[in-house]
UniProtKB/TrEMBL annotation:
Record key words, sorted: Aminopeptidase, Hydrolase, Metal-binding, Metalloprotease, Protease, Zinc
Domain spans labelled Peptidase M1 alanyl aminopeptidase C-terminal: 553-876
Domain (Aminopeptidase N-like N-terminal) ranges: 20-188
Presence of keyword Cytoplasm: no
Source species: Rhizobium deserti
Protein name: Aminopeptidase N
Residue span, Peptidase M1 alanyl aminopeptidase Ig-like fold domain: 446-548
Length: 876
């Protein structure tokens, strides 16, 4: 692939007025007739040809204003269609006929078949695999769609917009017609056809319109769509109340499919979902599954305004819709559940997924300026860091001003394809605040490092805080400018109350937010009558790494007293990470591992504090992961030492807290039927983390085998099975439980995915042999992305000791798998390959093996653009 540069953006030469598509469905030979009305943009010379995008297409007919276009007037390459000598003044109609093979489409981009269902995925550049088209997000038009297909095989035929009509056709065929009046780019086009079950409901919008809601699933799975439907209605209501956004068609449809490259897709009025994010019932879905469904249903629905009504001018602006929409779904989940617990989960995810991206060879700005393969830019940087940037705008401006800026954005840009600059300008215009420096968050890659130190002056009753910011070098960005970093703070007195300073000097302060805007900055707080403990970056107000050497006793003080629950969790985590990194160093030096009693007692105090919600207490007890420890150590990592260190600390806590954990298991037991609400989920999570600690202090699997047998819901069952398999991989109780689980859920693909994942993540050197054996299992389906992710993805991303075995065998195995997946599904191959993005932070022997495996991939013939782009950047 060629490198695409933001600086090269220019509008199209031709304006698309209308799109009229007719599909004659056939599993291997679908006919697509596309009628496009264009006019030449004002000022564009009459000699300029029309160039349309294509991908693996063959043209079978081309008409200009209903007359055949002679071969001398156009060129077709499969990748593009160029038509010359088009009218200078008047609109013209181009009719393009192509034939495509949905059955052979294993990339899952364009029109494909999954389990007998026709389905499309057009973002980012999939529409060009359906027909020649100006396939870019700044080309907006209303679409009319006619679908013709075998009547018996396709009782359901769907597209975007409102239903116009449908009926029998000829010889067993039927047709359906749809019209979407809202101008949209081609990436939001969708078509679904086949034999599906449906769940129906309605929603009355704030101005009284009744909207039909339909969720389509495979026959027999209708009952499992109930939670998704409920989440959809709550999302629609919330968007009206919180953002004033109303739905704008008379029908909203969701289709769940089992082969899908990502989570879901926000096609206008017709969202297509990975069925993993639709289907749930207590027997087969975990609390986490329910939370994911709620969040993703909301996310795709919220795109209707942030992404669809207002879309991106070009793909460099991806964060305009994704970062903002993630921010919106985070706020939704925070309102539906516990805000503090939600924030903790967000930050855990950000740090474990986005921070490594920003610290490695794939680092790129939230708003990049160049790409080779746009599919590789659907990253946690664009999504999650993009959301954090939006969140910081809200923090900087305050809730009311943020709302004014959003209102202006919706009013000013409805129906347009716009840029990040247009978005930011709305907040500047609505509030008068200059966001020039703040905008560096969009342009500078890398996680800022803020170093803080504080000192207290008893005589003058002042507390002085020195801050320094440093933004690390990232690919193509060696030097960085200082950023505008909003830091929420509290000064906690020795009695535990929040001290209000008489005055703060040294920079702007709004409410509890310090504005760090220069490389070095000193804030002085006066009127502080006793030595305070500073809590900084509360609620993770900025996505930074903070180096602040605080004594364990001070961290324990924050953990006990801060009014910001997130900050209490953060303090416990900081305490734990100090212990865990020291433990990892000790293991490597052959020393005994110790666990600071300050940590143990702080954790157990939080665990037993009945004034705190159980979900929070569970988060407090969940130690940083092995990947978190590796990130903190930074370089020369030995995953085996990290694992051993973490196990030793867990065991020490388990022994010290046995009584607390036994008590919690009794206290958090739930009687009555399973409910997926946040409070019940919180109790289960506290009970399960207590259970996991207890097993660290025990030598036999008896307690876990009993927990597995007693479980009456998937959350508890999957947790017991995970602990059994990970703690006692070779015991009969484990193989029995695995066999029972597989037999019971054999016909449920989503549960069998869990069965594969649990085994893929069993730590230790035996993992690779297990993975290879599981690939030969009859339930392993090499073409199903969920299944591949559940086995190979879980192994590479989430089994640090198994994947990083010192002999490098697993890296070579992954390279082989990548090369096998790539020809079928390049997007999936490229994504799984990113599991090796932190290879340079491994100790030299492992790093050498990883390097060699990456070189094997790079040298392989016929690589896709997707994999080539990733592997080359990782090796740079
Ligand atoms: N906007 C959607 C992105 C997406 C996607 C991108 C590339 C290839 C396949 C894809 N499926 C979905 C999903 C979202 O962010 O809501
Ligand atoms: Zn999205």
């Amino acid at each position: 692939g060629q490198i695409v540069h933001l600086a090269d953006y220019r509008p199209t030469d031709f304006v698309l007025e209308r799109v009229d598509l007719t599909f004659e469905l056939d599993p291997t030979n679908t006919k697509v007739e596309s009628r496009l009305i264009f006019h030449r943009r004002e000022g564009v010379d009459a000699s300029v040809p029309l160039v349309l995008d294509g991908d693996e297409l063959t043209l079978s007919g081309l008409l200009l204003d209903q007359r055949e276009v002679p071969a001398s007037q156009y060129d077709e390459t499969g990748e593009s269609l160029t038509v010359r000598d088009l009218p200078a003044e008047t609109p013209f109609e181009l009719t393009i006929t192509t034939f495509i093979n949905p059955e052979a489409n294993t990339q899952l981009m364009g029109l494909y078949r999954t389990n007998g269902i026709y389905c499309t995925q057009c973002e980012a550049e999939g529409f060009r695999r359906i027909s020649y088209f100006p396939d870019r997000p700044d080309v907006l038009a209303p679409y009319t769609i006619t679908i013709i297909g075998d009547k018996a095989a396709n009782p359901v035929m769907l597209s975007n917009g409102n239903f116009l009509g449908g009926a029998g056709y000829d010889e067993g065929r039927a047709f359906a017609a749809w019209f979407d009046p809202h101008p949209k780019p081609s990436y939001l086009f969708a078509l679904v056809a086949g034999d599906l079950g449906v769940v129906e409901d309605t929603f009355e919008t704030m101005s009284g319109n009744e909207v039909t809601l339909k969720i389509y699933v495979e026959h027999g799975k209708e009952a499992r769509a109930a939670y998704a439907m409920d989440a959809l209605k709550r999302s629609m209501k919330w968007d009206e109340e919180r953002f004033g956004r109303e739905y704008d068609l008379n029908i909203f449809q969701i289709v769940a499919v089992s082969d899908f490259n990502m989570g879901a897709m926000e096609n206008k009025g017709l969202n297509v979902f990975n069925d993993k994010y639709v289907l749930a019932d207590p027997e087969t879905a975990t609390d986490q599954d329910y939370a994911n469904i709620e969040a993703i249903i909301a996310h795709e629905y919220f795109h209707n305004w942030t992404g669809n009504r207002i879309t991106c001018r070009d793909w460099f602006q991806l964060c305009l819709k994704e970062g903002l929409t993630v921010y919106r779904d985070h706020e939704f989940s925070a309102d539906m559940r516990s805000r503090a617990v939600k924030r903790i989960a967000e930050v855990r995810h950000l740090k474990s997924e986005q921070f490594p991206d920003d610290a490695g060879p794939l680092a790129h700005p939230v708003r990049p300026t160049k790409y080779r393969e746009i599919n590789n830019f659907y990253t946690t940087t664009v999504y999650e860091k993009g959301s954090e940037v939006t969140r910081m705008i809200a923090t900087l401006l305050g809730a009311d001003h943020f709302k004014s800026g959003m209102d202006l954005y919706f009013e000013r840009h409805d129906g347009q394809a716009v840029t990040v600059e247009d978005f930011v300008k709305c907040f500047e215009d609505a509030t008068g605040r200059d966001l020039t420096q703040f905008s560096l968050w969009y342009h500078q890659a890398g996680t800022p490092l803020v170093t803080a130190s504080g000192s207290y002056d008893q005589t003058n009753a002042t507390f002085t805080l020195s801050l320094e910011q440093m933004i690390p070098a990232t690919p193509a960005q060696p030097n960085k400018e200082p950023m505008h970093i909003p830091l929420s703070f509290a000064l906690i007195s020795d009695t535990g109350s929040i001290a209000a300073p008489a005055e703060v000097k040294g920079g702007e302060v709004t409410g509890d937010v310090l504005h760090l805007t220069t490389r070095n900055q000193i804030f002085t707080f006066s009127g502080i009558s006793s030595r305070p403990v500073l809590s900084l970056n509360r609620s993770f107000s900025a996505p930074i790494n903070l180096h602040f050497d605080q004594a364990p006793a001070d961290l324990a003080h924050i953990a006990r007293h801060d009014t910001d629950l997130f900050a209490r969790w953060q303090a416990l985590t900081d305490l734990a990470i100090g212990n865990l990194t020291q433990a990892a160093r000790d293991v490597r030096e052959g020393k005994a591992v110790t666990c600071d009693p300050v940590l143990t007692s702080a954790l157990l105090e939080a665990a037993g504090d009945e004034t705190l919600e159980p979900a929070f207490r569970a988060q407090a007890l969940t130690l940083p992961s092995e990947a978190d420890i590796a990130r903190e150590l930074g370089s020369n990592n030995d995953p085996d030492a990290i694992h051993a260190a973490r196990q030793a600390v867990l065991t020490a806590i388990a022994k010290a807290g046995e009584e607390t954990f036994l008590h919690l298991i009794g206290e958090m037991a739930i009687s009555g039927p399973y409910l997926p609400d946040a409070a019940s989920a919180g109790k289960r999570s506290l009970r399960n983390i207590a259970l996991s600690y207890l097993t660290y202090a025990e030598e036999t699997p008896a307690r876990l085998a009993a927990a597995f047998a007693d479980a009456d819901n998937m959350t508890d069952m999957a947790q017991a099975l995970t602990l059994l398999a990970h703690r006692f991989p070779d015991k009969a109780e484990t193989s029995d439980a695995l066999a029972t689980f597989q037999a019971r859920f054999d016909n449920n693909a989503l549960v069998i995915d869990k069965w594969f994942s649990i085994q893929a993540m069993i730590p230790g050197a035996g993992a690779l042999a297990r993975i290879k054996a599981l690939m030969d299992h009859p339930r392993f389906v090499a073409n199903n992305p969920n299944r591949v992710r559940s086995l190979i993805g879980a192994f590479a991303f989430s089994n640090p000791t198994g994947f990083n075995r010192p002999d490098g065998e697993a890296y070579r195995f992954l390279a082989e798998q990548i090369l096998a997946i790539d020809p079928k599904n390049p997007q999936l191959a490229a994504r799984i390959l990113t599991s090796m993005r932190s290879w340079r932070s491994l100790e030299p022997q492992r790093a050498d093996h990883a390097h060699a495996a990456l070189m094997t991939i790079e040298r392989a013939p016929g690589l896709s653009a997707d994999v080539r782009d990733i592997v080359e950047r990782m090796l740079k």
